[in-house]
Design brief:
3 strands; disordered N terminus; disordered C terminus; 3-stranded mixed β-sheet
């Protein structure tokens, strides 16, 4: 299950490749590429395990694993709640800006040059202030989202290694991004370990499934909007094609 926040900010690359080698059985993490606003942290190294001799290749959508877990959903909803006042503040700033722009459009033929110039400067000043507020809020949200991801991934990474070893996997690839940002062109559902890994994590964490967020709840600040528009959420990174 995807967190709605990954569509807004999102966004997000944690582990490009978690390699469970037959020699050491320990994970190595790489950094994925893409247009995510804040990359998820690399998976921490697990203790060296006995050789497993696994040869299968598997995939995991690390974004979905982290923010689709009960703990991830719970914490991201709490962060959403925390940002509701900021979202309201940004909306009020945008409404004021829109009102001034509408005033200029409807009255520019009636205003004298000095009054028109004053109104233009006022709009320009408020637009810059609004853009800065959006950027600051987006960066603040991204930092706190990163903290959530680091904490969950620190506990999830050893489970990925153990699950992979037990299942005979030699390599686990991150499927969070689509080609060409990811080297993977295609993969089958049979090799994806995201859901069983999340199920196991939920079981061990003991965190119950959180209630669905209320309709109309505040969203995290989006990237800088075009002039005169309300901040809107970013789309999530599309996934590469999978088999049915």
């Amino acid at each position: 299950m995807k967190s709605k926040f990954l569509r807004l900010l999102l966004a997000v690359a944690a582990v490009s490749v978690i390699s469970v080698t037959a020699q050491t059985g320990s994970p190595t993490a790489g950094t994925g590429t893409g247009a995510s606003p804040s990359a998820l942290p690399s998976a921490p190294s697990a203790a060296t395990a006995a050789p497993t001799g696994g040869t299968k290749v598997g995939t995991i959508n690390i974004n979905e694993a982290i923010f689709g877990s009960n703990e991830g959903q719970r914490d991201i909803q709490a962060l959403q709640k925390k940002f509701e006042p900021k979202q309201t503040e940004l909306k009020n700033q945008n409404d004021e800006l829109e009102g001034l722009k509408k005033q200029m459009q409807t009255q520019q033929d009636k205003l004298n040059p000095d009054a028109l110039e004053t109104l233009k400067k006022q709009i320009e000043s408020k637009q810059k202030s609004f853009d800065r507020s959006v950027q600051d809020a987006q960066e603040e949200f991204g930092t706190q989202q990163q903290d959530i991801a680091k904490r969950i991934l620190a506990k999830m990474a050893p489970m990925i290694v153990k699950y992979s070893q037990d299942g005979g996997f030699g390599v686990i690839l991150d499927s969070s991004k689509a080609w060409p940002e990811s080297p993977m062109l295609w993969w089958g559902e049979a090799v994806d370990i995201t859901k069983p890994l999340v199920d196991e994590y939920n079981k061990q964490s003991g965190v119950p499934a959180p209630p669905a967020p209320a309709t109309g709840a505040a969203k995290p600040p989006a990237s800088k909007p075009p002039t005169g528009t309300t901040p809107s959420p970013k789309p999530s990174t599309p996934a590469a094609p999978k088999s049915n």
